[in-house]
Amino acid sequence: MDLIHGPILPALLSFAFPILLSNIFQQLYNTADVLIVGRFLGQDSLAAVGATTAIFDLIIGFTLGVGNGMGIVIARYYGARNFTKIKEVVAATWILGALLSILVMLMGFFGLYPLLQYLETPVEILPQSYEYISMIVTCVGVSFAYNLFAGLLRSIGDSLAALGFLIFSALVNVVLDLYFITQLHLGVQSAGLATIISQGLSAVLCFAYIRKSVPELLPQLKHFKWNKALYVDLLEQGLAMGLMSSIVSIGSVILQSSVNTFGAVIISAQTAARRLMAFALLPMTAISSAMTTFASQNLGAKRPDRIVQGLGIGSRLSMSWAGIMCIFLFFASPTLVSFLASSTDGYLVENGSLYLQISSVFYPILSLLLIYRNCLQGLGQKVLPLVSSFIELIGKIVFVVLIIPWAGYRGVILCEPLIWVAMTTQLYFSLFRHPLIKEGKAILATKGQS
């Protein structure tokens, strides 16, 4: 999709909507696991999956971040219509993706079980937790492959194709979850296996589509060549986004260690609430993802004024949705938590609902955080968005060490919202001091006077 010309609002919405649907079905991977495991295997199995949530997000977030980060480089060359360079970039992403997959798999093989023990995973659910997450880590290359191919499609504005493949594979994931658990009785590990098989299908279908519909994007043997500047650019951008997500997830892993100390019921409440929050935030993440590609394409086209206009429109859209969700979750969270956790336990429902009702008040701030950070990434900034992730990591450590032992589970609930405020402040000053944003505002001011 061309995000360089024409009205901005329809372009952003048209590009964000397939991403939104894609994110919804991506969430179904995890939510299907939670819903089916909780309903058919019981509360302990649900807690076992929930206790690995932060680790799961760490792994998947890293692969998604790397894919999207490298996609920013592709989007830049696509905006400049340099197709030869695009093929060289794609070739390099494949090589780097394979190497990073092997590295993550080896780290997981040696460190996964000790990590679960360090997080104080309750001993009664530890074996099931390890069974589930070890399957995900062993096959991390599948997640890398899908996110690299999907990132390539999104970088050229074709988010609709990746959506179709993802919908298909998400449905396959649900069917396999039900078959493995209810018919073959394979236990918690089969939920991880279903996720991997489904993502593998997405990767294969994405590649087949690219090969048939846009073969000019696929590299030939001559494009697999060493280019130090290109590899450095890809690694910096890909690892910056991957590490940014990982740093956030490391903070979540540390926070999970505190959640685990409250026992299986609170773990289940937290798991259900976090899944519901993820769904509530999907339109905001879709708009911010669209902002990344929008900013990157217009950076390549040298249109800073258009970037500033898109920034304002995206911010207003995202904040509007945040306000709607704040009101909705205040009233609907008890029913939603009970349904997703497959439980009528009053203590579980009360704490899961409290998590959503308090955190949703801060969603408007979070909406700006996502827009500002993604715009900076689209402008090719690597360090400034990473700083916000370090703020989040340090903040979670402070909460785990000093506040949660005193405040209990309410300290867990308040941890992220208060950190969002600090992160948004840092990102605001980083973005609006950027030379391109200043240039774009100056151009718009000149146009307004003429």
Question: How would you characterize this protein structure?
Answer:
- With 450 residues, the protein is an all-alpha fold.
- It has one domain.
- Helix content is 86%, strand content 0%.
- The chain contains 17 helices and no strands.
- The protein has helices at 8-41, 43-50, 53-79, 83-118, 126-138, 140-155, 159-183, 189-213, 228-260, 264-280, 282-300, 304-341, 346-359, 363-378, 383-407, 409-432, 435-449.
- The longest helix is centred in the last third of the chain and has 38 residues, at 304-341.
- The chain is globular, with a radius of gyration of 21 Å.
- The two termini are 31 Å apart.
- The mean pLDDT is 83.
